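Page 47, continued from p. 46.
Same chain as before, 123 aa.
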Amino acid sequence: MKKIVIVIGMLMVSIGLFALYERLEHPPLPFSSLTPPEVAKRISSSDAPLVYLTEEEDSLWYAVKEKRVDLANQRIEEFMASQGWELRERDGSGLFFARPDDEIVLTTQKWTRNYMLVKVPKG
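Result:
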């Protein structure tokens, strides 16, 4: 009986440690349509400067594979320039872009130490 209790205890500790590792390795996402492991796999398997992740409500979500925020912002700026947008201003996590008759604000957030998420409003 004592052995069964010890085995069950060790099993519970193992499960708890695994859950903690998963939580630390892949923090929660600001959207619910993909799981953190799915997002990590999509990003790591792509060579694109911005990796499309998902569409939720009024936003499109992308990711940038970059440790440094300044380099991630530079990749975003280059990608947007290739689409005809010009960076007007950076304010915290917001990147303000404009075209002759249009404006858009992208917001960024660090997801893991290697990846940055980019929220792009639709329309």
